[in-house]
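Sample A.
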Amino acid sequence: MSVESILILLLVGAIAGWLAGALVRGFGFGLLGNIVVGIVGAALASFLLPMVGLVIAGGIVGAIIHSTIGAVVLLLLIKLIKRA
């Protein structure tokens, strides 16, 4: 990965984490924690979703949608684990 790719992944992950925190109400780690979860979710989604065959749109909007899906799934998994 190039430096530009990593920076874009971090920026998209930060936006996705903020969106995921807004979508998953009642649970989150605050703004900074949700941004970190978004970055991890972005990396996870950019790896797993194309393998499953789920490709939404191209460009930055598609990357934000993919990353938001990954961050929401990650927040829900963390929520489920914390309850147990």
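Sample B, a different protein:
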Amino acid sequence: MPTISMFYGLIIRMYFAPGEHPPPHFHVYYNEYRASVDIRTCEMLEGSLPSRQTRLVLAWTELHQEELLADWKLVINGEEPFKIQPLQ
């Protein structure tokens, strides 16, 4: 699962596999926390993060929604996603 971005201790990854299941989403790792985020709604699908990290990830998702959707299209076709700028 390629890492597409890293910032403030958060690691953002997308599965690189044909037929990845909907809805369009990515996975977030922060210390012992794990979560997945719906790209279209900018909401947590499952898992949890501390509240500050949740706010950071959701803000980043809104800023990069188009790029994330483009990466989603790549991964469902078995192609490697592009890196996306971290939150600064």
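Observation for Sample B: The chain has one domain: 3-76.
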